[in-house]
Amino acid sequence: MSLVQPGNVEELYELQDKLGSGHFATVWRCRERSSGISYAAKFIRMRRRKGSRIGIERKVVNREVEILQQLQHRHIMQLHDVFICQVQMVLVLELIQGGEFFDFVAEKESMSEPEASDFLLQLLDGLVYMHSLNIAHFDLKPENIMLQQKDVIKPKIKIIGFGMAQKIEKNMCLVSRCGLPEYVAPEVIKLEPLTVVADMWSVGVITYILLSGVSPFQDKMENDTVTNIIKGTFDYEDTYFNSTSAIAKDFISQMLVINPKERMTSSQALLHPWIKPLTIKQERNRESASINITNFRKFNSQRKWKRACESDQEDSTMPSASLLRRRHSSYS
Ligand code: ATP
């Protein structure tokens, strides 16, 4: 990882095409001039004045940088470099080239449960690592689960989107910005003290959708979605779950538990028989099951449609690049 050398981002990196955007960030492909290696440059708009609603507070961006600096794992996007000026911060990140995991699944003819559970295993592997450092992601959703490359025999999951990640302090009450209601745990909504296990609720929602193409708590109105999450009631309707194994449902049910103390942790999930079958019976139960690909495709195209409408409203201008590079280690 290159750390020092003063200069501005465009002196060291050639900016190329736009890869994506979020509320306050735009991500561009770039090429490091010295090495020729491609990266993703995330331009984050920072708040200019206290009380302004545009941009993110500098301390929040600094927190994202500090967290990314601590994380080095095969299933977690790596931070390579950082630039800063008054109004923007640029994170130069490992380039993830395989697109979103959900888009990859939607392009397939079918997917068996063992295949699906292998992707979950990778996601959990990354989460066990993060959680062992007491870092919670707090924004796990399909957009933040990508693939390193997709045209390979075994695509590798990469977790991205650490803008809301936090190192958990004792009895922590979060958060200035909240994840998408569809995926957030009840304790986040209720502003209760949080632990890393809040992420496991999101993994439960993501797995439920992956297997059925239905979102367990989503309603037409956001308020109703929130009420559904707080109640925590859901079922496995036969119309959507007729090809799902009992063991997969058990895996999900152990994560969609209202009381965080009773919810399965990431290390427990990694040992769940849906992820690592212990007996031949469990293995067979999983092998004969598959995801509901037809309905999943429907869910995914609706999700993409919603996102496209949202991003139409966002600013997509080329970022100004007069940003002075600062050492990673100099943030505080
Ligand atoms: P955050 O989730 O951290 O608050 P954000 O939603 O504003 O931030 P990101 O999720 O980090 O922004 O990125 C926005 C989009 O840019 C992603 O959905 C993805 O499509 C693309 N993207 C982000 N990081 C990378 C990367 N390292 N490689 C390729 N594409 C990326």
Could you list some keywords that capture this structure?
Phosphorylase Kinase, domain 1, Transferase(Phosphotransferase), domain 1, 6-stranded antiparallel beta sheet, 12 helices, disordered N terminus, disordered C terminus, binds adenosine-5'-triphosphate
Description:
This protein is of the alpha+beta class and 332 residues long. The chain folds into two domains: 4-95, Phosphorylase Kinase, domain 1; 101-293, Transferase(Phosphotransferase) domain 1 (Transferase(Phosphotransferase), domain 1), CATH 1.10.510.10. 35% of the residues lie in helices and 16% in strands. It is built from twelve helices and twelve strands. It has helices at 9-12, 58-70, 101-106, 113-132, 186-189, 198-212, 222-231, 238-241, 246-253, 266-270, 280-287, 293-312, and strands at residues 13-21, 25-32, 38-45, 79-84, 88-94, 135-136, 145-147, 157-159, 166-167, 172-173, 193-194, 324-325. The strands form four sheets. It has a six-stranded antiparallel β-sheet. The chain has a two-stranded antiparallel sheet with strand order 6-9. Strand 1 and strand 2 form a beta hairpin. Helix 6 (198-212) runs antiparallel to helix 9 (246-253) and helix 6 packs across helix 12 (293-312). It is globular. The protein starts with 8 loop residues before the first helix and ends in a 7-residue tail after the last strand. Mean pLDDT is 88; it is low at 1-6 and 320-332. The structure holds adenosine-5'-triphosphate. Adenosine-5'-triphosphate binds at residues 19-25, 27, 40, 42, 77, 93-96, 139, 143-144, 160-164. ATP binds at residue 42. Keywords: ATP-binding, Kinase, Nucleotide-binding, Serine/threonine-protein kinase, Transferase. Residues 310-332 are annotated as: Disordered. One of its GO terms (biological process) is positive regulation of apoptotic process. One of its GO terms (cellular component) is nucleus.
